[in-house]
């Protein structure tokens, strides 16, 4: 059974930082591209960052230069380091296995102004 468990969300002031983690189980983690998506109230879910199996990355233009996605294959974990947070980054953040309809439960990130 494939499972993704996110953690690390919380309430932070604008300009602050958070690091999200997503632990995967039930898959051959190292060969899968992984992604972080987010969904704000009343908005569609959107891609935030993607990392391939070989470590290539892609970012939404709104987070480029502020967020960093990384992975630790030994721990079956993908991370999202979020710096210089803005109120518009407030959303539920989800981890996913790219190309598969598998999602974690999400972790809430709230940025206060």
What does it look like?
The chain has 113 residues and is an all-beta fold. Helix content is 0%, strand content 50%. The chain has no helices and ten strands. It has strands spanning 3-7, 10-13, 18-25, 34-39, 46-51, 57-59, 67-72, 77-82, 91-97, 107-112. The strands form two sheets. It has a six-stranded mixed β-sheet with strand order 2-10-9-4-5-6, with no helix packed on it. A four-stranded antiparallel β-sheet has the order 1-3-8-7, with no helix packed on it. A hairpin with a 5-residue loop joins strand 5 (46-51) and strand 6. It is globular, with a radius of gyration of 13 Å. The protein starts with a strand and ends with a strand. The model has no long low-confidence stretch (mean pLDDT 97).
């Amino acid at each position: 059974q494939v499972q993704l468990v996110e953690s690390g969300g919380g309430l932070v002031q604008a300009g602050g930082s958070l690091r999200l983690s997503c632990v995967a189980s039930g898959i051959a983690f190292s060969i899968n591209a992984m992604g972080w998506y987010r969904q704000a109230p009343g908005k569609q879910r959107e891609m935030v960052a993607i990392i391939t199996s070989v470590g290539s990355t892609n970012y939404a233009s709104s987070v480029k230069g502020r967020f960093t996605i990384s992975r630790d294959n030994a721990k079956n974990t993908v991370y999202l380091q979020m710096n210089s947070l803005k109120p518009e980054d407030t959303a539920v953040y989800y981890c996913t296995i790219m190309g598969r309809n598998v999602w974690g439960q999400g972790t809430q990130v709230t940025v206060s102004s």
